[in-house]
Amino acid sequence: MAFVRYVTEKNVKEELLFCSELETTTKDVMAKVEDFFDKEKISWASLCGVCTDGAPAMLGAKSGFQTLVKDKAPNLVTTHCFIHREALASKTLPDGLKCAFEVVVKSINFIKYSALNTRLFRKVCEDLNSEHKQLLYYTKVRWLSRGNLVARVFELRDEIKIFLETAKPELAVHFENVKFLSCLAYLVDIFEALNQLNLKMHGKGNDIIQFVDFTGAFVEKLDNWKRKVANGNFDMLHSFACLSDVDDEIRDEVADHLGTLQTEFKSYFPEISRDAFTLVRNHFVLLLNMWMTSCKMNYLTLEIFRLL
């Protein structure tokens, strides 16, 4: 699917350009676009930017779609989907948190593996008057999946422990472990923050400047959270702060993960590290800089004449 954004006399419009079946590789995508441009007599010179989404093949240096389009229009600006980049930047987990997440997934898969286990677990939840009666599957291709999954497990952690004590004792012991519960609580908080950032980038009405603001503010938030965690302040991590026993090892691992997230986001979003939109944000800033530069030049000229 190809969408187009163009400028009219009154405003900027966005519409579906065309939709075509992908038959082979990324080169086929380029062939489809070329055929459409030729058929509709659209000049490549009219193209000023392209934004891609999906597989890394779209960004390949030799045969990626962006590279092939740049051969046709060398001066265009290329970007990649902010939502996809946010998902990639947030994938990295340290070993401790990764192991805790794997235990969560194994527990869910065991409970939902058979219809009998699902019914028995629902009965446990009903007997304990739980708000929820079932767990959620983890789906890698859905970027909000991790946050919703761990939040549900954290809410039903007591019910899961009771069910696994007889059905799968080797998994039940994790839900009695303070370190595991601390990792689970932190995952709930950080995935919730990542999901909120992800949802801000959905829908129409936003532009690349707003996306840069969202990600830039999130990176600054991570830096602030890292400093607070290092000082033993967990108030911004609501689920994590509810636990009374948080040892130094867990605190250091949380601080390291926040620092890693910050580094990953800066790597995937280089836009937030440079002031690329100053002119668009505030025309007065550019004029002020030009005026200050002019004043310095005039002052330098006067000094030269005074010395002469």
Report the mean per-residue pLDDT as an integer. Answer: 82
Number of strands: 4
| Count of domains | 3
H/E topology pattern: EEHEHEHHHHHHHHHHHH
- Termini gap: 68 Å
- How much strand? 5-15%
Helix percent band: 55-70%
Using only CA atoms, what is the Rg? 26 Å
Which strand order does the major sheet show?
1-2
By DSSP (H or I, 4+ residues per run), the number of helices equals 14
Question: How would you describe the shape?
Answer: globular
Q: Please describe the biggest sheet, giving its number of strands, its sense, and whether it closes into a barrel.
A: 2 strands, antiparallel
The helix/strand class is mainly alpha
Sequence stretches where pLDDT stays below 50 over 5 or more residues? none
Q: Could you name the key traits of this structure?
A:
two-stranded antiparallel sheet; 7% strand; 4 strands; 308 residues
